[in-house]
Amino acid sequence: MRLLLVEDDVLLSSRLRGELEQAGFAVDVATDGVDAEFMGGSEPYDMVILDLGLPSRSGLEVLRHWREAGNPLPVLILTARDAWHEKVDGFKAGADDYLSKPFHTAELIARLQALLRRGIARPHGPLRVAGLELDEETQTAQVLATGERFDLTGVEFRLLRYLMRHPGQVLSKTRLAEHIYDFDAERDSNVLEVYINRLRRKLGREWIATRRGQGYVFSADPV
Ligand code: CA
Predict the structure, then answer these.
(1) Distance from the CA of 113 to the center of ligand 1, in angstroms?
(2) Cβ atoms of 101 and 75 closer than 8 Å
(3) pLDDT digits (tens, 9 = 90+) for 26-69
(4) Distance from the CA of 108 to the center of ligand 1, in angstroms?
(5) What is the pLDDT of residues 103-124, one digit of tens each?
(6) What b-and-e string marks burial along 178-188, b requiring 16 or more CB atoms within 10 Å of the CB?
(7) CA of 175 relative to ligand 1 center, distance in Å
(8) Distance 10 CA to ligand 1 centre (A)
(9) Ligand 1 center–CA 59 separation, angstroms
């Protein structure tokens, strides 16, 4: 899990970073709003912890800009204690959860894990990458160049969504399996090949490349 931690309190962010890494997250830190907005818009994070009081651009503005740009990143906001209006404003701007300062890291981690379990990344519009569009509502994929639209099964949809959220990255079978199967399902990474091949038959072979011994890459050469 790759996580962006946006917090201008350096002591707090370095302590949190260590604890989150121990909990299995790969953590990048941003300390002001402008950097945070850029990083969240250009890197494929799985989720964001966003402090609202930030130098150079407020967390609320950052969140609004991401949502206006159609960025569906799951975002947990950190609010000042007793500032109920910040929570309301945060949810209106598109936050998925909040935590009031001060908090226990164990609660933060539990909330992040709950967001992951709920698959909270509700998109604010379809996901478009490299000429392919994925519609969450109808679970269909469309090749933009030809206008052809394809129905996807649940597993195909989750697999393609994860691939499209991480374009150009080599994704191992194990990592993909972790993201597409339900918690109680058998996570057999060999079955992945079957689903990858189904996606290729439907959409065309050019979208997903095989890296032998490593895994798969969506759109290795994004158009
Ligand atoms: Ca702050």
Answers:
(1) 23
(2) no
(3) 889 999 999 999 999 887 788 999 999 999 999 999 999 998 88
(4) 16
(5) 999 999 999 988 887 766 444 4
(6) ebbbeeeeebe
(7) 33
(8) 10
(9) 9
